[in-house]
Amino acid sequence: MKKYCMISAVLVSLLMLSTACEEGPFDPDGWNTKSHDGFMLKWRVQDSNLEVELTGPSTGWVAVGFAGSYLMHDSNIIIGYVSGSSVNIRDDFGVDSNTHVSDTDLQGGEQNVSGKSGSEASGTTTIFFTIPLNSGDLYDNALSEGQSYNIVFACSAAGADNFTSDYTIITNTSITI
What we know:
The chain is mostly beta strands. It has one helix spanning 2-20; strands at residues 32-36, 39-46, 49-56, 62-66, 76-83, 86-94, 100-102, 114-121, 124-132, 148-156, 167-176.
């Protein structure tokens, strides 16, 4: 009995440590998580792709930018919104710290997002998507497993179901892919 109590105490302690971490590597399916300023990012590497789930504090658009130099600048931005049963997700590039445009609006840019889905619930929007770790697109930063990258999160006002409304929240942090 004493042995079982000791094992249970150790397991509970490990569980508490894993849930207290901002970036949690203990998911058995390989998902990592990062919570920051009301956003929740989940990601995992699958073959040569990055699968991502982003939840943000808005019923308008939410976005995550990978590997930029400052806020949106030079980031590979994935932006999406849910309108009724329609999920809209686009691959953008940060042309400066506050502005992004669709990759296809830039010479040689391509849309490199697949596996798109999403939902809205309780004042939040969640988008799920897959991007290549290295798409070869001039406007998508190549990512490597085990490397740290700057990340920017942004969202619009509630109900801004489009790609053009101004952001109401923008914040940055970092993750290790």
